[in-house]
Amino acid sequence: MNDHHPLDAVRLSRRSLLAGAAAVLCTGSVLSRAAWGQTVSRIIVPFPAGGPADFMGRLLAEKLKDAMGRTVIVDNRPGAGTRVAAEVLKNAPADGNTVLLAPVDPMFIGPLIYNNMRFNPVTDFKAITDVAGVQFGLAVNASSPIKTLADFVQAAKARPAEHSIGISTVGTLLHFLAVEFVAQSHAGSTLVPYRGGGPLVTDLMGNQIAAGMDATTTFVEYHRAGKLRVLAVAGDKRADALPNVPTFAESGFPDLVTASRYLLYARAGTAPDVAAQWGDAVRKILAMPDVREKLGRTGYDLLSGGAPDEVARYANALAARWTPVIKASGFKGD
């Protein structure tokens, strides 16, 4: 006589499935750690070599050799407003050997303006920590009679055709900050898109355009050298690298308070202990005096490397603040 209850077979089957799943997860974790222990790591940077982001990536890579005891290289993958680099990370193995150092704003802006996104920032990536803050500023040629943000607004209202504002990128937080500034100031300025900060600075230096808006990392050396004048920055405090430059809020625009941050991302599915090694190492590096001095001199605001949950709260708050503005603009990318 068979005295087994029919449900016993179901329970046994379920136990077998769970055990099998656990074995698969364990094997995957072992394989992940094995790959992590044997392979050179790389930091993908979504901008060309020689720029501020590349400098930060290479500074991290140099220090990570000691902090993690492994070789770390920088892989520059510029293009498509950081989407090219993000796709490289999505297509990389989730073994922790490939990470992405990128600004947070394209991650939430991309799905709002592009129809052909080939990755999902929410499900494909996990933020490990934040690395540095990025402020945005409005700059003019140092020879310009415009000395303050109020001066620019007054001049632009009087002669809007002569006071266009160049922006280094479109479809980014910088772009929509410029849209908001023009709307709130009623200046009437036209926004002129450029292919990067280099061409924008060239035209500013040559008085080919009245003003430019970009990350302070683009402007800081020219401002210090007396070639460009940053009129205001948009952060909730003055930029670490430009302590004498007022904020937009101090200059009469209390609603224009925003900034971005560079985050370190791993592929979703990366083993938590591997991701934690990156985070712990970056936090140690960001506390080093020489690193803080170099990042500050380049124009970044200094951070200490937040925990993943802290970074997620920051990113969600930034997205909530700007999503209505982006949608209301009606802007769509290529």
UniProtKB/TrEMBL annotation:
InterPro entries: BUG, Bug_dom1, TAT_signal. It holds the Pfam family TctC. It comes from Cupriavidus basilensis. This is Bug family tripartite tricarboxylate transporter substrate binding protein. PANTHER family: BLR1237 PROTEIN (PTHR42928:SF5), TRICARBOXYLATE-BINDING PROTEIN (PTHR42928). Belongs to the UPF0065 (bug) family.
